[in-house]
Amino acid sequence: MLSLQSFGQLRDTAGLSAGKLKKISINAERYGDYYTALNYYSAYAAKKQNTAEVQYKLGSLYEKNRDYKNAAETYMKAYGLDEKNPQALYDHIRMVKMTGDIEKARVEYKSFEDNIRKMGYHNNWKRILRTEIASCDTALALIADSLPVKITNLGPEINGPHQDFAPIPISDSEFVFGSLRENEIKYFSVDSTTTRRHLYISNRDEQGWSPAQHWDVPFNNTDYQVVNGSFNRDGDLFICTRCQENWKREMTCKLWSVKKENGDWQSAQLLPEEINGEGLIVTQPAMAYDQRKERDVLYFSSNSPDGKGGMDIFYTYFDTRKNAWSRPRNLGRRINGEGDEITPFFNQKEKKLYFSSSSYSGMGGIDIYSSRGELSRFGKPINMGYPINSTVDDFYFVLNDDRESGFLVSNRAGGYQMMNETCCDDIYEFKIDDVVHIDMEGFVMRVDEEDYAKGEGDKLSSKAFNTNFLDDVQVDLYLIEEDQEVLMERFKTSGDGTFKVNFESEKQYKVVLSKEGFFSNNIDVDTRGISESETIHQNIGLSEISGRSIVMGNINYEFDSAELTSESRYEIDKGILNILRENPGIVVEISSHTDNRGELKYNTDLSQRRAENVIKYLTERGIASDRLQAKGYGESNPIAPNTNSDGSDNPEGRAENRRTEFKILENRKTLSDEDDENEE
Length: 680
Known about the structure:
This protein is α+β, with helices and mostly antiparallel strands.
């Protein structure tokens, strides 16, 4: 899984002494060749089988070879020889769970807990066992609530008897993956040449996946083990992991970048020391794109000493101003626990990080989790459920853009195995049934300020779009989750003003459309309760900011009073309040006007109090007071005559003059527009 084992030719064990067998086993294990270590230690154990220490060590080697059945039996033998060692009993039960017998494991964990005092074990075991019992309950619940997912082994054209891993889609019908292409078991020898893992490529047609071929690119050569990688969104940058043994025969892995120029992949360049470190395993790159800052982001797994546990997930971004990768940052305790966090994959459409972890209570070995967010801001990890996860190790999860299919890697039973039924990693394809696809599509057009101020910018037909459409409008799609707004997608409308966005079911979204010199417009979308795929047709209007005063319709007051009526509050909510919320940078003047009845000073004071009451209501609704200015003009700025030409009263004109208006004074740059590095 994470180890890159060395292989050579097996020596005959029959003529070797117990000491020699043990020494070879220890050396093989040190070099990461657990197959060889197990073979020699099994021969050693046959000579020393009646000691608990030997049986426990043998059990640990079975576990490292992921032979869970033999590991469970051997750990139990060790416990039977020394019941003062509760660790052997605990490891036996862990292996029982890994074989898939979760209910039996739960019973044995509970029995262990009930007998802690009787057996004289330390009370710390109670906390550990309760965690394991809860993990069994979680696994049983996940199985009971299994997902409608079909999982299929990719077959012998892709999967061999050793390790196949790290699927990297190129298109719907082509992918690259890592593999150790050996058809027989090989073992450790001190003078052997390491069998190398490389990247292979396969294409799919109507008959299925073609036989894997070595990926013929310059950086996938025999100088290194090339084990995984990731493309950027444009497909012209590939970050890969290349591994080598050092003089101690310890495997070290580093990240390299490769650019495609004029259709050809160039030579690989080692990423900076700040990322790769010295003597570390830095691996499993996952490229993403920061749409706010328009830059590449790289997630990866490393055993850096700056981590929280074993292997942790870090991220770095490419600083276009400095033309360099930034200092890596740990994703933090929301993602990284005390165990291993590995094989990150970032789905750009969903803004989700998929990764595998041994830190959380789950199905069994290493489980696949998802977490919404980006950079260092992620939500609580969610177990991907059964049968995506099994009771063994599941990792390298990749979701295709259709959100219905993808790949994962697992050593679950039923694969193409050589040593035992769960020894080795195979690549699987999955298909999720009944995925609900919800789309919104429409046009963006220019509307009058008065219509926009009335909240009618999204009540449009497409009849006038031949002349009034707006291109180059920025469309931001936000998911509202855990009281946070997560930017899911950002793009510009096409030349004919069309846009299209995709939603997940059972979610809440906000679509924000903006253009320089125009008011923004927001559309709230709630997909909760939508159980079938559908397309929502929605046209949206934007109004140009002219700087002139705009009448706020139907804003009325109690007679001879500054108090707003309930109808006026409703009009404010759907009009100016929405405008201020959707355009957080604008500063407005709220002005009130009267007709010419009454004293000039009285009318001026009344209009000032009315304007101030509108501002008071807006601040109560959450608008910052420094964005609002009140001005009472009284009768000084009529827009219609108060009397007719013959001197008679003009009720219609007076009604027009009794009005409330707003005017844009300033359009500030907001925090979300600024290049603020601290937001990460």
